[in-house]
Structure formats: structure tokens, C-alpha cells
């Protein structure tokens, strides 16, 4: 038996499961080579972070607003 599940902000949600101290903070997960945003939680979305945003264009916002960035972890 196989199951196909679609989870909102999957990688960002998984990071907060493993790091409860991040609950309520803006979290984004970056693509291969940390090029662009591939997942963001509701707090990051509220800051205007869009899917596919290049990291280098958003890094000032991330630092200013305390956005926590993770490299992609495909093993999840």
C-alpha cells in the first residue's frame, strides 16, 4: 500500500517539528545550493516571502525580520 500526502509548507513544517523553539517564528527552506525559497511557513508568508524568491534578494529582509533559513533536507 502507498500513500500520497500533500502537506502545506512541508519542509518548513518538518523543521519546526524537530526544532520546537522555532514555533511562531518565520521559517524558510532554500533549494539546492541555497538559491531560492522552496518552502515557507505562515509567518514567513505574512512577511511577503514568495515561493521561488531568490535568497540574495531577500537576505536583508530575512536578517531584519529574524527569518530562520534552512538548506533543503530531502531525506525528510
Automatic annotation (TrEMBL):
One of its GO terms (molecular function) is DNA-directed DNA polymerase activity. GO terms for cellular component: cytosol. Residues 2-76 form the UmuC domain. GO terms for biological process: DNA repair; error-prone translesion synthesis; SOS response. It comes from the Bacteria. PANTHER family: DNA REPAIR POLYMERASE UMUC / TRANSFERASE FAMILY MEMBER (PTHR11076), PROTEIN UMUC (PTHR11076:SF34). This is UmuC domain-containing protein. It comes from Escherichia coli.
Amino acid at each position: 500500500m502507498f500513500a500520497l500526502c500533500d502537506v502545506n509548507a512541508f519542509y518548513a513544517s518538518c523543521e519546526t517539528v524537530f526544532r520546537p523553539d522555532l514555533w511562531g517564528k518565520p521559517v524558510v527552506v532554500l533549494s539546492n545550493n541555497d538559491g531560492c525559497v522552496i518552502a515557507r511557513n505562515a509567518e514567513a508568508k505574512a512577511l511577503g516571502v514568495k515561493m521561488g524568491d531568490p535568497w540574495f534578494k531577500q537576505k536583508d529582509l530575512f536578517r531584519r525580520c529574524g527569518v530562520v533559513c534552512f538548506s533543503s533536507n530531502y531525506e525528510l
